[in-house]
Amino acid sequence: MANNFHRLDRRRFLRGAGTALALPLLSSSLPLSAATPDGESNPKRLACIYFPDGVPMPLREDPAYEDWSWFPHGGGTEFKFTKCTDVFEPVIQDVTILSGFSHPHARRVHGHRNADQFLTAAKIRRDVTYKNSISLDQVYAEQIGDQTRFASLVMSTDGGIGTPCAAQTLSFNRMGRPIPAEQSPKRIFDMLFVKKDADAARRLAMSQSALDEMLADAKDLRGTLPAEDKERFDEYLNSVREAEVRVQKAKEWVHKPFPVVDQALFEDDISPESPRLYLQSMFDMIYLAFKTDSTRVATYQIGRENGAGVSDRLARAVGFNLAHKLTHDTKFPGGWENLGKYCRFLNEEFVRFATRLKETPEPAGTGTMLDNSLLLFGSASSAFHLSRNYPLVLAGGKNMGFKHGRYLNYAGANPMSGAWKGGIEPYQKEITHDDQRLTRVFVTMLQQLGMETESFAGATGNFPELLS
């Protein structure tokens, strides 16, 4: 007789050294909420990965153009990768390369200040109070975040939230506030898979009581405030409500066991001082979180703009000192090749991550994990400090209707490129070619992820060319 796993005691888990590790994700124990309308249990996942500093874009007449341009040569299905991007060839049938896309509000923004807008498309001005909007990942997390233990996983190499216009996180909430990002693989692992606090239920009950009292008092107080104070107070109330949602969600999951994974792999923390291993570990965190259905939404900011922070040292993986300096040194002989080697390293690790998803059968559905995961990999800079023609890779999502194996080139025959040798920077030059709105890609992604929407960040329209 077949086992009925739905009748397993889901509170049974392995115990030891004050921690708890639980049963793995089984197809028969997948939450009913994960099932698609036609009955297939295919969770739909989203991961957005960002790298800073732009990519090699030598002029067509430059000897480095043939080998070290980041964008392929050609278009459609007839294109040729360069040495910078040929690592995508083994997974090309699961990948689409995009050029000629950007956010209109960021096209005249200096490349040191554009990462904040990558997933928000917000109009951020420096001459007024900084204000962002909700990011793509959090829009989707609001839709499906209640179906998993964690609504989303937010990571960055530099951690924290940084400063306005120099964020160290890709994720922003409904109020446009940055969501703190975690940088330690071990802490991420412990958060996802190791339960240490046996008193969590009691503390959650106390937190709920405190929040109830705070909200009651807040409603009374708001009525006494002048109009100019109410907007700021409403932001505070929104934060309290977000905390209330998190507490309620934690109460629902506190007695559910954590998935079983190999804890020995992450007994010691890994730092960016070991750049290749560190990057692999951070991608592994997304892989494990997706495989165990701990979350279906993740962001990872590989580095912040402007060369500040520990992420700048990732270039040591390929024999250089600081990553950002490579963009400035493209004016010297061999500069394009050096920047290309660093970008190739980042591409290699993304491909390794995508390949691992591709080689893993969907734990509780059909196809592979990559077929049910939509990956956006890219930057808000192309040439030196230029916030146009974003270098973008869209991967996975075949079970969501995405068609791959193509290079969709909307940048035109002569995109702005070349080394910066002083004077007016590329972002200050006249716009001679109108990019496509990246929000159209975002709308398509959200629609295929199952959301009913026709717009993102106030812009309407999708991009059906991405679909089968």
TrEMBL record:
Pfam families: HXXSHH. The keyword Transcription does not apply. The keyword Mitochondrion does not apply. Residues 1-34 form the signal peptide. Keywords: Signal. It comes from the Bacteria. This is DUF1552 domain-containing protein. It comes from Thalassoglobus neptunius. The lineage of its organism: Bacteria, Pseudomonadati, Planctomycetota, Planctomycetia, Planctomycetales.
